[in-house]
Every structure is written in structure tokens, then in C-alpha cells.
Design a protein that fits this description.
The structure is a single chain. Strand 5 (74-78) and strand 6 form a beta hairpin. The protein has two domains: 7-166, Aminotransferase class 4, branched-chain amino acid transferase, N-terminal domain (D-amino Acid Aminotransferase, Chain A, domain 1); 177-342, D-amino Acid Aminotransferase, Chain A, domain 2 (Alpha-Beta Barrel). It contains eight helices and 18 strands. It is an alpha+beta fold. Bound molecules: pyridoxal-5'-phosphate (PLP).
Length: 357
């Protein structure tokens, strides 16, 4: 990093803030964004906060051809004293560097970027909506910008952070969804890019997602790409099951994304003296538990929804209704506690939240 001094170029044309009751996910952006450049000679340089605006890139820019990019997703919340809280942002920057490593993108300086992020959030404070369940979604991302059609890592990159006020994931209260187990397509395979947050992993899932949506299901459940037996994730979330009193989540491998929410749930449950068993879990085992009447709860876990209860699982031609399509007790407690900590409503014994001045 040759240039660490952040330059702030304030936007003279501030937009009017949106109606907090009608916020869609990721459709609307704040007045400013953060950008920083990289070249082989200079390293990361020219960190700046500038008005949010279209960017100009050559059509030959490598991002358009071979998909060399990474991203992150986290949220800023407002607490009851109007203070601004981030939830475990250090974990996101660490993961961004792990994704960088997988995609041959040069690492960022996590400490400096944390400081830039805080300055950006501080400048855009007024964009953090106040209403219950709302937040400011933060999207850091890096793209390869060198104009070249060579199939090789780019020599130039741009790092952006853009911000979007988002509404409550559950405007009508937390509710269980129907999930279809995907038998044909795979999200990620052993040795692939599944542990990295990189664009292509998500477009790889669109076919299956569209098919499931057409059948009336909210999302797909992904199985491992080798044997098509073991459960990996649900949509873009990690997944947990409660079977016969035990909480089980697929053990991390190199095709599962290491969620911050997943990690936090495991730590939170340990604090409640509930051990989470991280191991391989097959769809067959889940089905047998369902038949035996011991499949008590299932839920997805990720930043967007925090916790998303699964009310129905479709596997081959079987429909498994979980907990009478009601949100389970454990799922509910986790949701209330995690969102409570994130919004400063309840104490944070883990020191997960970071205040932005
Ligand atoms: C981002 C993401 C998750 C959840 O991670 P969080 O850090 O909890 O938001 C899970 N699976 C996939 C594929 C993801 O992209």
C-alpha cells in the first residue's frame, strides 16, 4: 500500500432519502462510494470517497471476460441511542482476503480498509434507516480492470464499497419457506471456488433457482458436487438442522462458504451450552429423521435474513413438512438474540459489534 491518505470529495448533489417503508433489497444507493486502485508497480493506491456515479471501463477490461472479482456483504445498524453499529466487520475483511487469495487478487490491508469503511459509513450515517428490521447494506467488491484478453491474473484492480439502505427481510414477521433439494446442478465442487465470495458462484446457481421458483419454492438446497449425497448450503446461506435435540451443521470443506452468521450461531449456542455438531450430513439422514419424527427444526443462516426457517423440504418426490411449517423455538431464539445484539437492543458479551462515530 503506497498511498494511505484517504481523500474525500463530497457530493454537492445529495439525493432525497427513500421512504423507509418501501425499501427493496439493493436497488438504491447512497450519495458516496469508496474506491481504491491497484497496480503491480504501486500496490493499492489512491483511496478516496467520491460521489456515487457510473464508472468508465474499457470493454477489454478483464472483469468482463474471465470473471476475476470478489465481494463481501455486511450491514450497519442504528441502535436506540442513534449510534451506528457494524456486526463483526473484521470477519468480512478477513474473508475478503481469503477470497482474494483464491482468485489471485492481491490482498488488501485490512486495518486501513476498516478505517476507510468507518469513514464512509460515518459520512453516510443519515442513510441508515431507523425502522425495525431495516439497515444499511454494505457491499465491498474488487474487479479486474486491466484491458487485456489474456487468460491470466489482471495487473490492475479497483476496490469499491457501495452502500444501499435495505428494508426488513421479514416485513410480516419471520416465516418458514419451502426449499427444493437440487439433484442435478451443483453450486461448487471440491477444489473449486465455493469458499470464495466471487460472482460466478452465484450465476452458477440461477438455473436451479429459477426452476425451484417456478415450482413455487423459495430456494434450493445444494448437495455436494461429488456424490450428490451430503448437504452443503441452502440458497446463499449456510444451513442448520435440529434432529432429536442435537444441532447439526455441515462441516466446512472447500465447497462451503464460511459464513459469519454460521460462526456466530455456533459461538452463541456454545454460550447457551448447546453444542453444534459440525459433520457431514446426508439428505438421506435428514429424510430418515423426518420419517422417524425427529427432524425438529431446520434453518438457513446468512447476513441478509440472519436466520431463515425452513418449513418444507422437497426431495425427489417427497415433501417433508418441518415443525408444522412453524418457526421452531431454537430458530426463533437465535433470530431474536442475533438481531438484538446487532441492533444494540441486548448486551453483546462477545464484543461482536463495532461502533462507528
Ligand atoms: C455470504 C454467503 C453465506 C453467508 O455468509 P454470512 O457471512 O453469514 O453472510 C453463505 N453462503 C454463501 C454461498 C454466501 O455467499
Amino acid at each position: 500500500m503506497t498511498e494511505a491518505k484517504l481523500v474525500i470529495n463530497e457530493n454537492p448533489n445529495k439525493k432525497t432519502k427513500p421512504d423507509p417503508d418501501n425499501l427493496k433489497f439493493g436497488k438504491l444507493f447512497t450519495d458516496h462510494m469508496f474506491t481504491m486502485e491497484y497496480s503491480r508497480e504501486k500496490g493499492w493506491f489512491q483511496p478516496q470517497i467520491v460521489p456515487y456515479a457510473p464508472v468508465s471501463l474499457e470493454p477489454a477490461s478483464m472483469i468482463f471476460h474471465y470473471g476475476q472479482s470478489v465481494f463481501e456483504g455486511l450491514k450497519a445498524y442504528r441502535d436506540e441511542n442513534n449510534d451506528v453499529l457494524l456486526f463483526r466487520p473484521d470477519e468480512n475483511l478477513k474473508r475478503l482476503n481469503r477470497s482474494n487469495g483464491r482468485l489471485s487478487i492481491p490482498p488488501i490491508n485490512e486495518e486501513l480498509v476498516m478505517d476507510y469503511l468507518k469513514q464512509l459509513i460515518s459520512l453516510e450515517k443519515d442513510w441508515i434507516p431507523q425502522a425495525e428490521g431495516t439497515s444499511l447494506y454494505i457491499r465491498p467488491f474488487i474487479i479486474a480492470t486491466e484491458p487485456s484478453l489474456s487468460v491470466a491474473p489482471s495487473n490492475n484492480y479497483t476496490f469499491f464499497i457501495i452502500l444501499s439502505p435495505v428494508g426488513s427481510y421479514y416485513p410480516e414477521g419471520i416465516h418458514p419457506v419451502s426449499i427444493m433439494v437440487e439433484e442435478h446442478f451443483t453450486r461448487a465442487v471440491r477444489g473449486g471456488m465455493g469458499t470464495a465470495k466471487t460472482g460466478g458462484n452465484y450465476s452458477a446457481g440461477y438455473n436451479a433457482q429459477e426452476y425451484a421458483a417456478n415450482q413455487g419454492h423459495a430456494q434450493v438446497m445444494w448437495l455436494d458436487g461429488v456424490e450428490k449425497k451430503y448437504i452443503e448450503e441452502v440458497g446463499s446461506m449456510n444451513v442448520f438442522f435440529k434432529i432429536d435435540g442435537q444441532v447439526i451443521t455441515p462441516e466446512l470443506n472447500d465447497s462451503i462458504l464460511q459464513g459469519v452468521t454460521r460462526k456466530s450461531i455456533i459461538q452463541l449456542l456454545a454460550d447457551w451450552d448447546i453444542q453444534v455438531i459440525e459433520r457431514k450430513i446426508s439428505m438421506k439422514e435428514v429424510y430418515q429423521a423426518y420419517e422417524a419424527g425427529t427432524l425438529e427444526e431446520a434453518f438457513g443462516a446468512g447476513t441478509a435474513a440472519v436466520v431463515s426457517p425452513i418449513g418444507e423440504l422437497i426431495w425427489k418426490d417427497e415433501s417433508m413438512i418441518i415443525n408444522g411449517r412453524q418457526t421452531g423455538e431454537l430458530t426463533k431464539s437465535l433470530y431474536t438474540t442475533l438481531t438484538g445484539i446487532q441492533t444494540g437492543k441486548i448486551p453483546d458479551p462477545f464484543e461482536w459489534t463495532v461502533q462507528v462515530k
